[in-house]
Sequence to fold (246 residues):
Amino acid sequence: MADEAKRTRTVRVATYNIHRGRGLDGRTRLERIAGVLATIDADVIALQEVIGASPLKAGQAAELGAALGMGWVMAPTRHLRTALFGNVVLSRLPIRHHQQHDLTWKTCEHRGVQRVDLALDDDTLHFYNVHFGTSLLERRSQAVKLASIVHDRRVVGPKIVLGDFNEWARGIEKDILAERLQSVDLRKHLKRGGRTYPGFFPILHLDHIYYEGKVEVLKVSMPRDRMTLMASDHLPLVADLKIGFD
Fold:
């Protein structure tokens, strides 16, 4: 039993499209995003639509990391005026490795998946932060690429894949991913079925969590209060997971 306990860890993960820190009231207030994330109290967080460093500012990733006392790594996909723009992972766990894969399709907006390897004692958890495109053919191509990247047998150990997939109904994208990955069925855990967009009156199910390996879903939540309903155009999606290692 002692050996089994040593080889499992419970980790709280979250995914949140912060919409550049701009809320549904039209105001850009990063302190609201920091407040939402502090309340979530996750060990590792996948963020999308984050403004990074520019010649004049440290950027939102640095500000959120400092506010929450968390380490961070950014995977920019493009520039927003003079600043970097893309995905960010915030983590309380030590970061062993960081890698970025391009998912851009044809002439559409640049997209990517961010892989972060996290230390859980002597073991490693692979964490993938995703932001897919908005067109059907684009997402289909990105799903194929993502499934191949995550299923790489050279990367050993449990894997968590989460982010903004921009698909609200079951379609080809989910079928492609389901061939190789397990999906967290949000309908089993959430009364509203995981609808996270738009934030104030969510009707679309855009944010998802997948996994591979020894992962048990303990709890899923989608915080809904005055601050989360206003801070971004998405709601955060949170999951407590029990991670097992061979």
Residues 2-244 form a domain with the Deoxyribonuclease I; Chain A fold (CATH 3.60.10.10). The radius of gyration is 17 Å. Residues 42 and 183 are 20 Å apart (CA to CA). The helical segments are 2-6, 30-40, 60-68, 136-150, 172-178, 186-189, 226-231.
